Amino acid sequence: MTQALPPVLGTIGWTERTGGVLTRRERFALARPLSRGHRDIVLGHLALAARRHRGRHAHLDPTALSAPDSTTARDAAAAAHDLLSPAVLQHSHRAYAWGAALAGVDGVDFDRELLYVASMFHDTGLPSGIRDVDFTVRSAALLRLFADRHGLSAAQREVMTNAIALHHTPGVTLEAGPEAYLLSAGAGVDVFGLRAGDIPDAVRRRVVHEHPRLGFKREFTRLWRAEARQVPRGRAAYLRRYAATDLTIRLAPFRG
Q: Which residues form a coiled coil (predicted)?
């Protein structure tokens, strides 16, 4: 009999099996992508300051960032409105918009409705209410309830819950699927400024105008600290310790 491989670090299978608690070996495995992320954040901030960033000459159709026009998407936005604070709700909208923008920049094809719904739900479990269980477990559970009510398939639920579980794992690539890649990238733009300079300047201004930040940095730092206390050997605590998230969030190239 062939033995099943263990779930990949950060996926929904891994997160639900382990609660998101990292082993020593897994912490070492995250060190390289985390260091690359640090480097890219610093270089990106410098490029923006020097006006030499990639997005200064880029062009992108603003309609490519629009939310999908479907009942499922509208209901997901309504559900997020009921579950999230105003600052985190607007972050969820921006995470989708940044992800869609980077898809245009990178030439990535993706399912807009699945990315949008995953974006609306990705932080609904933050911070975790259960000791040593990552917040994305609850976010994924809430999304499954929503998906069941809207008749979404098991395959669609898997794509979205996997994107949610992976989104705060350093180094998510397209191999994880376009929706997981873009949700992680979009959240990275909004929280840390990672790849913010790859997005056209006019698009950055428009997204923040349409979805204001409302003191997001302060609120999200508080939520991240609470998550790190709940899961002291989880990814939030790991990032807070080794990525200095309190500082990195504060230095993101956005006001508020």
A: none
Residue 47 has a CB neighbour count (10 Å cut-off) of 17
Q: Is residue 11 part of a domain?
A: no
C-alpha span between 152 and 29 (Å, rounded): 34
Q: Does residue 66 come out as left (phi exceeding 0), alpha (psi in the -120 to 50 range) or beta?
A: beta
Domain that holds residue 235: 20-251
How many structural domains is the chain composed of?
1
Of 15, 223, 18, 245, the closest CA to residue 128 belongs to: 223
- Give pLDDT tens digits for 194-238: 999 999 999 999 999 999 999 999 999 999 999 999 999 999 999
27 belongs to a structural domain: yes
- Give the C-alpha separation, 230 to 104, whole Å: 37
Residue by residue, DSSP assigns 45-69 as: HHHHHTT--GGGG----GGGGSPP-
Interior/surface letters 98-131, b for 16+ CB within 10 angstroms, e for the rest: bbbbbbbbeebebbbbbbbbbbbbbbbbbbbeee
Tokens of 147: 């998906």
pLDDT by residue (tens digit) across 84-96? 999 999 999 999 9
Contact (Cβ atoms closer than 8 angstroms) between residue 231 and residue 130: no
In a domain, 81, yes or no: yes
Query: Would residue 216 count as lying in a domain?
Result: yes
Query: What averages of pLDDT result for each successive group of 10 residues across the chain (256 residues)?
Result: 66 97 96 94 92 85 88 98 98 98 95 98 97 98 97 97 97 96 98 95 94 97 97 97 93 93
CA–CA dist 228, 230 (Å, integer): 5
- In the three-class reduction of DSSP (H, G, I as helix; E, B as strand; rest coil), residue 17 is classed as helix
